[in-house]
Model the fold of this input.
Amino acid sequence: MHQEPLPQYLLSMTDAAIQTLLFDRRKKLKDRCIILGHHYQKDDVIIHADFVGDSLKLAKAATQYPDKQNIVFCGVHFMAETADILTSDKQRVALPELDAGCDMADMAKPADIEKAWHEVNALGIEHVIPVTYVNSSAAVKAFVGDHDGIVCTSGNADQIVRWALNRGQHVLFLPDQHLGRNVSKNVGLDPERDMLLWDPTKSLGGHNAENVKSSRVWLWKGHCPVHEEFTVAEIEDIRSRHPKMKIIVHPECSMAVCDLADAVGSTEKIIDTITSSPPGSEWAVGTEKNLVERLAKNLRDRTIVSLSPTPSVCSTMNKVTARHLAWILDELYQKNILRNQIKVEPAISASAKKALIRMMELS
Ligand code: SF4
Done:
C-alpha cells in the first residue's frame, strides 16, 4: 500500500493555513481522536500531538485511551502496527504517510528469518530464543511470539536479553546488530567469543556450524542508518575542542561509539538525563537531529549540540508532514473516513501480541 497524492486544496494552502486547519480540526475531533507523536517528528507536526514519546511509550499511551476511536500515529509503520496490536478492535490506527517506514525494520524479512531458523534446526541446535527490537514489523514480532521469544526496546533490552540467555542456549537478536551487541556486552558477554554477526544473504549467516554452535548471541545484520553514522572520530574531535562536554548516545550507535561515550541510553533516557542535568551543562548528543535541536531550543540554559557536524534526520519518519496530518484529520472530520488505516492481520496480531505482552509483563 502506497501513499496516495494529497488533494489539491491541501497542496495549495500555505503552511500557516495548514496549521490553522490543524488546530481547528484537532479541537473538533478531540472526543474521538488522539494524536501520538514520536520525538523524531518535525516541530510543526509534534505541536499537534496529544502525547509525545518514543515507540514503546507511544504504544502504551495508545492503550490508555480506550474511549478514543481513532488513533493518528505520527511515526513510522511498525509503530502504528504495534499500536493496532495493543489496542481494542473498536479502535482504529492511522499513519498519516503510508511510505513512512523504518529502514532498520525493513532489514529483517520474515522469509529470511524462517530460512535462518531452518538452517540452525538442521544442525540440531535447540533452545534458541528469538528477541526482536520493537523496531520490527508485526510479522517479525509474530515469528518471535510463535517461537517463545520476546520483544525488547532500547530501554529494557539489557533485562530482556538477560532473561532470554537464562532461558535458552542461544539468542537470535533482530534486527539491530548494534543494540544487540551493546546489550549483550552489558550483560557480560564477550563480543568476539560469544557473539556472531548473522548475514541473512549467506548460508548459516556466513559462518561454519562450529562457530554458530559456540556463540551465545547471533546478531542479525541490520542497523539504523541515522545512528550508525556517528563515529569515534567525532567523539575525539568534540573531546579535544570541548573538554567539559559530556557525550550521550543512543544504543543503536556502534559499540566503539557507545564504549567511548559518557552515557548510553534510549531516547527517553537521553531526554531525562539532559533535562535533569544542572544549568550550564554541556552535551553532545548522538541521536536524531530533530530531537537534538528541540532539546537545544527547550533547554537554553544548557549547551546541547549534535555529536556530528552533519547529523541526519530519520528520512522515513520525516515523510510525515503537517499537510499529511491535516489530510487525515480533515477527512475524518468532513467525511468520517479514517484514511491510511493500519490494520494488522488477526493471526499475525495475535502472535505478535504474545511477544509484546511477554515484554510488558517482564519490564
Ligand atoms: S531513526 Fe532509525 S530505527 Fe528509528 S525509525 Fe528511523 S530508521 Fe528506523
The chain has a mean pLDDT of 96.
